[in-house]
Amino acid sequence: MLRISLKLLAFTLTTSVTRRLPRQDCGSNTGALMKVFNLLTCLVAGTCLLPFAANADPVALTHARLIDGTGKAATSDTTLVIDHGQIVSIGAKPPALGVKTIDLAGKTVMPALVSDHSHVGLVDGMTTASRNYTRATILAALDQYRRYGVLTVTALGLNKSPLFDQLRREQHQGLNPGADLYGVDQGIGAPGGMPPEAMIDKMGHDQISRPRTPIEARRAVDRMADEGTDFVKIWLDDLHTTNPANPPLPLLGASVWQAAIAEAHKRHLRVAVHIHDLDLAHQALAHGADILAHGVRDKPVDDALIAQLKTSGAWYIPTLSLDESTYYFAEHPETLDQTTASGAMPSGLKELIAQEAWRKATLAKPTTEAARAALAMNQRNVLALYRGGVKIGFGTDSGATPLRLPGFAEHRELILLVQAGLTPLQAINLATQKAASLLGLDDRGVLAVGKRADFLIIDGAPDRTISDIDLISQVWQRGTPVSDGLVAKGKTL
Ligand SMILES: [Zn+2]
């Protein structure tokens, strides 16, 4: 019964979104009524798996500039045909007679963004608390990601079972509005160390394991594996470079985290390791880490790290916008007047940004200086690793604090990658094809025949000017327009 009412709620929400979208998706009134009838029938019978793949007839998008996500240059005047949630043809030819068409002259189509490192259910407004870990808070965040064009989100640890596991299944099936969801159940932190006890005190101790022995570490990994986690996460950071005024926090014992990696591999799970410093990145990779979940920020990366990453095939997620988020809004109060930024802000954050005293105090903090240095080092390192041929993913740590705004953080990340020296097309390739590849998903991340029709329609050319990513005018998920994006909400930029 609960499942059916959730589906009905999802259906109601979808139709209310669809109503605001252009007419071309609705077909004739009779056709639309039949679709509603069919959908209601299967909802009541509990047989619909994909209530969001509602376009039963093929749709052709014509005259589009197309960025396919592979890093190739955009093609102009392209026709994209979508049927049953998938792309069925791409090319220069006009669609067959009788196929419903949508003219996208002057607009760019690109794959939806994929985040390899975010969090859900930790923050609500300006609070971080255990009580935030609810279905409603998580679905609201996934809906915000979707508005910003992020249709696949990886919540990399600090999750609560069984709600997280249930929501992942539901999002995979498209039962609720919002981004698809992957991630790590709890993760393995250090007793007395990272993630900081003060943060976990607020969040809840059931959202992390802190093993003291290799046996406890293996047990924690087995628990996550039994719950069906997508990865295992381990924190290896003493926080000293982030906060130089404080003494280093205790690290997990080497035998403990190494046992966790060995056990994860025994259970056929890959391990994402939170690192900050070069030395710990070397150690993690030497003992089998599959993903570095953050960029190296204390020193320039060396040839040995590049060799380790390339030999092992491990991924590197820089999360550039993480450090910037700590001071960005204090430095940019004009974001209050920019729809793209303010549309992602809770009201409490808007109040803070409006206060000159808060902005001054934030910019004067010693940690702000450290964050600027960390961002500069992170940008220098991602460029060196990219040029060195390392596999780079895309993530931001959005959702982990009230300043890391779901969706907006991913747009900043693209801009910061370009500032680091990547071309806009290279940055887009990381945030689409590469990010999906890190997750092992080959059904999305590129626009090609047979792939999911998860894409963004943009009133601009982000392959020329990366900040045009803010000009999303529509988001399509599984072949259906699900959000009118950012520009339709009013004047932006
Ligand atoms: Zn994180």
Small molecules held by this entry: zinc ion
- Binned, the helix content reads 25-40%
Q: Which CATH-level-2 architecture of the largest domain?
A: Alpha-Beta Barrel
The largest sheet, given as strand count, sense and whether it forms a barrel, is: 8 strands, mixed
Q: What count of domains describes the coordinates?
A: 3
Kindly report the name of the CATH homologous superfamily of the largest domain: Metal-dependent hydrolases
- Our Rg estimate from Cα atoms comes to 22 Å
Low-confidence stretches: 1-54, 489-493
Residue-averaged pLDDT: 89
Instruction: Assign an overall shape.
Output: globular
CATH class categorisation of the largest domain: Alpha Beta
Please tally the helical runs, counting DSSP H or I stretches of 4 or more residues. Answer: 17
